[in-house]
Amino acid sequence: MGRAAEILGVTPAFLRSLGAAKLIEPQRSDGGHRRYSRYQLRLAARARELVDQGTALEAACRIIILEDQLAEALRINAELQHTRDQRPQNAGRRSA
Predict the structure, then answer these.
(1) What number is the average pLDDT over the span 7-12?
(2) CA dist list (Å): 63 to 10, 14, 30, 41, 60
(3) What is the pTM of this model?
(4) Exposed, middle or buried: residue 36 (CB in 10 Å: 0-12, 13-18, 19+)?
């Protein structure tokens, strides 16, 4: 946790608060140390940005969750759009 906090320029308490807010749930090493993925570190960095701009921690976490959900929805939409565009034009039509 100390190394992750150092990388992000935050305190270990800030990272623990993100865990308490359910934004990130780090894995644990055999020794019980918190291990953060790159994705979790990106979320924590985004939380720090928002908090530094004056956003309350709980609100920052909610914003990040919504941003993540929107990105996933856009990814799925683009994938479905691509799949639809790859089908032959008459594939869904029945002849009368």
Answers:
(1) 94
(2) 19, 17, 33, 16, 5
(3) 0.78
(4) buried
